[in-house]
Amino acid sequence: MARWSTLLLDDASLAEMPRLPVADVLRHADLVTAQEPHPQALYERWEKQQWSAQAIELEPDREDYERRLPKAARKALEESIATFIIGEYTGLDLLGPILTGAPEERDHLYLGTQIADETRHTQLMLRLGEEVLGLDPDPRRMLTQAWNMVTTPHRDLSRLETEVIRELQEHPSDYRRWLRAVALFHLITEGVLALVGQRAIVRSLHGTPLLSGVKAGFTAMCRDESRHVSFGLHALRQGVREGYGDDIREVIEQSAPIALRIEEGGEAESTEQGPTMRELGIDSLRRQLRLIGIEDAFADHVIGLSLRQQVSPEQ
User: Fold this and answer.
1) Where are the annotated coiled coils located (predicted)?
2) Smallest Cα–Cα separation from 279: which of 306, 301, 255, 254?
C-alpha cells in the first residue's frame, strides 16, 4: 500500500488482504457507514475496489482444511461456508426486484454494482464448497447440500426473504414494499448476518498462517459489504424521514429475532474467546438502527423478542 490510513482496507489489493491488521478489517464497515455515503460515492468506491474470485489460490487451503485444522475448527468452517453458500446465492437470486424497484436513478446505478458483487461472492462460495470442503461441484446439488447443513432459523429467514421479495416483485413501483425489502436484505441479512459472519471468520483466522485464500476472500467480502450496508442505511434513513418508519420497523420486528438466533441448532462449538455471534449481531443491529433514525427502545423490543423465540425441541 502507498500510505498508512485509518481505512487500510480501502486501498488493499487481494494479495495484501490476509496481512492487514485484523482490527482494521473488523471496524472498516463501521467507519464507512458512519460517513453516510450517498449512492454515487458508493458507486465510485466500487469502481476502485475490484477483485477476482478466480484469482484466489485455494489448493493450499484444501490441504490446511484436510490435514492441519482441528476437528472443531473444521466443523465451524464447514458450517460457516455452508451458510454463505446459501446466503450469497440467495442474495444474487433476490436482489433483482430491489434493483428494478429502485426509486431514483442513482439507486439503480449503485444496485447494478451490488448484483456484480453478489455474483462474485457466489462464485467464490461455490469454489470454497467444491475446492475446500469437497462438496458436489454441480451448483444445484451443492446448494441442496448446503441447505441441509444450515440451521432452522437460517431457513426461516430465507423463507421470509422470499415472501418479502415476492411482494415487491408483484408491485415493482411500490416504495413502501421496496423499503421493506431493503430493510430485510441490506440491514438484517447483510448488516446483521453477513457482515458479522465475515468478520467472525477473519477474526478466527487472525494470527494463523492457515487458510490464506479463505482469509483473503472473506476480507474482500467485508470491504464489499461496507458498501452494501451503507447503501441500505442511506435508503432506510431517507425512508424514515419520509414517514415510512413503521413499515421498516414491521419487517425488522419479523426478521431481526430470527437473525439473532441464526446459530441455534448448529453442531459446531466455538472455543474462541470474546463476544458471541449473537452479541455481535445485537451490537450491529443497535448501531444500524440508530444510523437510520430508529430509537433504541425499538431495538430493545426486537432483541427481547429474540430471547423469547427459542427453537422448540421438536424442531
Assistant:
1) none
2) 306
The model's pLDDT over 50-70, given as tens digits with 9 standing for 90+, comes to 999 999 999 999 999 999 999
Domains along the chain? 24-263+273-307 (1.10.620.20)
pTM of the model: 0.91
**If you compute the radius of gyration of the chain from its CA atoms, what whole number of angstroms results?**
18
In SS3 terms, the chain reads as: CCCCCCCHHHHCCCCCHHHCCHHHHHHHHHHHHHCCCCHHHHHHHHHHCCCCHHHCCCHHHHHHHHHHCCHHHHHHHHHHHHHHHHHHHHHHHHHHHHHHCCCCHHHHHHHHHHHHHHHHHHHHHHHHHHHHCCCCCCHHHHHHHHHHHCCHHHHHHHHHHHHHHHHHHHCCCCHHHHHHHHHHHHHHHHHHHHHHHHHHHHHHCCCCCCCHHHHHHHHHHHHHHHHHHHHHHHHHHHHHHCCCHHHHHHHHHHHHHHHCCCCCCCCCCCCCCCCCHHHHHHHHHHHHHHHCCCCHHHHHHHHHHHHHCCCCCCC
C-alpha cell at 108: 439503480
Are the CB atoms for 315 and 218 separated by under 8 Å?
no
% the chain with pLDDT above 90:
84
Q: Which among 218, 206, 273, 209 is positioned nearest to 68, based on CA atoms?
A: 209
Alpha carbon 202 to its chain centroid, in Å, reads 13
Taking the C-alpha atoms of residue 228 and residue 111, their distance in angstroms, rounded to an integer, is 9
pLDDT of 68-113, one tens digit each? 999 999 999 999 999 999 999 999 999 999 999 999 999 999 999 9
Nearest to 84 by CA among 215, 236, 221, 250: 221
